[in-house]
Design goal:
197 residues, 17% helix, extended, Beta Polymerase, domain 2, alpha/beta, 5-stranded mixed sheet, two-stranded parallel sheet
């Protein structure tokens, strides 16, 4: 099946639910509204001309610095990469969050159970909430971690650091204490280096 045939099939199946579609590097991307996201996901999985039975990846996206800050759309999005083994085809489903201050989209964990950890990762690193997820908690950062480190406005040095305190015999949190320094590489100059000269 060609990418154009896939595009025509998907557009015919989903109809007005598709906000936009594009083809880049041989892969079809469709953009849908948050309200249509769960229903579109179900159709992509169950329709006989789609059969996207496997969710290969789900990730959060932060568009705040996109196009050098010239982008004026919603800040956060979720991209889902789907695979149909039966029809040997792939598709990317993209949904933007309506609210930049509190990004929320529906969970697709009940449609594809492989979304579980991916949604937890997007929540942990971007702060995107997945409505209906049964166990939405941090997965990569520490339980006491403040903020979401993949957001473009997250400070490079973070907010707090943790270390083991031998006197208190426990892990303690303290403000980050990274001192700025300039590292100059060491240059070795020898007249007969490696037999040259």
């Amino acid at each position: 099946m060609t990418i154009e045939t896939l595009k025509n099939n998907v557009l015919a199946i989903l109809g007005e639910r598709v906000v936009s579609s594009s083809t880049d590097l041989g892969e079809l991307t469709i953009h849908v509204k948050p309200a249509d996201y769960p229903a579109v996901a179900l159709q992509l999985r169950d329709h006989v001309d789609c059969q996207f039975a496997q969710l290969m990846d789900l990730c959060g996206l932060d568009y705040s610095e996109y196009k050098d800050g010239q982008y004026e759309g919603p800040r956060f999005a979720v991209a889902v990469h789907l695979l149909s083994v039966a029809l040997n085809q792939r598709i990317r489903l993209k949904v933007f969050c309506d609210d930049d201050d509190f990004p929320v989209v529906a969970s697709v964990n009940r449609i594809w159970n492989s979304a579980n950890w991916y949604e937890r990762e997007a929540f942990d690193l971007f702060g995107i909430m997945f409505e209906g997820h049964e166990d939405l908690r941090r997965i990569l950062t520490d339980y006491g971690f403040i903020g979401h480190p993949f957001r473009k406005d997250f400070p490079v040095t973070g907010h707090v650091e943790m270390r083991y305190d031998a006197e208190q015999r426990r892990v303690v949190y303290q403000p980050v204490t990274i001192e700025p320094r300039e590292i100059t590489p060491r240059i070795i100059r020898e007249d007969s280096y490696a037999g040259l000269n």
